[in-house]
Specification:
By secondary structure, this protein is of the alpha/beta class. The chain contains eleven helices and ten strands.
Amino acid sequence: MTLLHETRDGFVNITGIPFEIDEGIAGRARIGLIVLASDHTMEHEFRQVVTMPGVALYEARIPNSPTITPDTLRAMAEHIADRAALILPGVLLDVVAYGCTAASIVLGEERVFELIRDGRPEALPTTPITAAFAAFRALGKTRIGVLTPYRDDVNHMVRQYIVNNGFEVPVFGSFNEDDDNRAARISSDSIRSAILDIGQHDDVDAVFLSCTSLRLTGIVNQVEQQLAKPVTSSNHALIWHALRLAGVKEAIPGYGMLYHLPADRS
């Protein structure tokens, strides 16, 4: 290729510089995240874990109310497809993860999958509750202690959905906070204490934190060592599931028992 040099006004303008194209920062996998407008935690925890070369995250924020009610959760349905389509238009994604546990339960996973596929038909869809079920199966656990920040009507829907999908919920605990901005600020010490309280029951063989606002990745190893049972959360399971769906199969030390296991893609 011939370079064109133009000299004017005291500088040289060089055009047509040759270049090569490589795989970019996502040579292994591109993961799209649909993140709630009110979410403080999801992107932070994904970026704590997803540090392997060639795996990249791309996010779009979805409008939502910070007040968590069945009605505000349902209202997000109209935005899921267009937010999925907004992520790197014209570039193929491997996975798209929708980042709201309670809305995925209120709407139903299949409906969320349909909406994601409307925007990104090429990508494998997942949600936090989908990932949690995959995590329970990978861990071989069926008796799940659940911790949420939600109010009672949302809690009832969460518990019933988990039970309807073949798992037992012998112990259920909640902070009963319906403001997402406050839920995101529940301290790690409070979360740790609640996990240990729920998980100590003999009929609980794993603990699940339901809500992408609740923080776990920074303390999961320590809590599992104290409890001697596996612990996961909406974000923790979703990160693992998105990576496994995208073909990232290696163990990821430092983030608990789940991160040493494969996922069933059937």
